[in-house]
Write a structure and sequence with these properties.
The protein is of the alpha+beta class. It has two domains: 53 residues, no CATH class; 76 residues, no CATH class. The protein has five helices and four strands. The longest helix is centred in the first third of the chain and has 17 residues.
Length: 137
């Protein structure tokens, strides 16, 4: 028997539940849980749900981003990040999850669409150091 990936399961689940509601949705979800239990895949549920969310967001044009900064960001800054990401990824909507990391000197790190945009001060200093070492030593 071929092994089914969590991504394949999530895609099948998304396609079968898309535009469904009520009793029909409940029936599909019950069948999905039974399939996972029978295949001893219930422990993979968090991975499947994460893949499901990625597939759903891509289909709906939604980008989910994780923003890490030293201290809380203002509403204006978050709005600018959303606006920039919306343009960069041509998304219909952006959802931000914010985190604080006191070890950052300053700046921000943004993780979106399997990409890391490192705008932290530590990264900028490292880039400057590498540039200076490569060009002036």
């Amino acid at each position: 028997m071929a092994k089914t990936s969590t991504k394949d399961i999530a895609k099948a689940l998304y396609e079968s539940t898309k535009d469904k509601s009520g009793v029909e949705l409940e029936r599909i979800l019950a069948s999905a849980v039974a399939f996972l239990a029978k295949g001893r895949l219930l422990s993979k549920t968090p991975e499947i749900l994460a893949q499901f969310e990625k597939i759903r967001n891509k289909d709906l044009g939604v980008v989910s981003a994780k923003v890490t900064s030293k201290s809380p960001l203002t509403k204006n800054t978050l709005d600018e990040i959303k606006k920039t990401l919306k343009t960069r990824y041509q998304a219909s909507d952006i959802t931000l999850k914010t985190f604080e990391d006191p070890s950052l000197i300053g700046g921000i790190k943004i993780e979106a669409n399997d990409e890391l945009i490192d705008l932290s001060l530590k990264n900028k200093l490292s880039q400057l150091q590498a540039h200076l070492l490569n060009h002036y030593v």
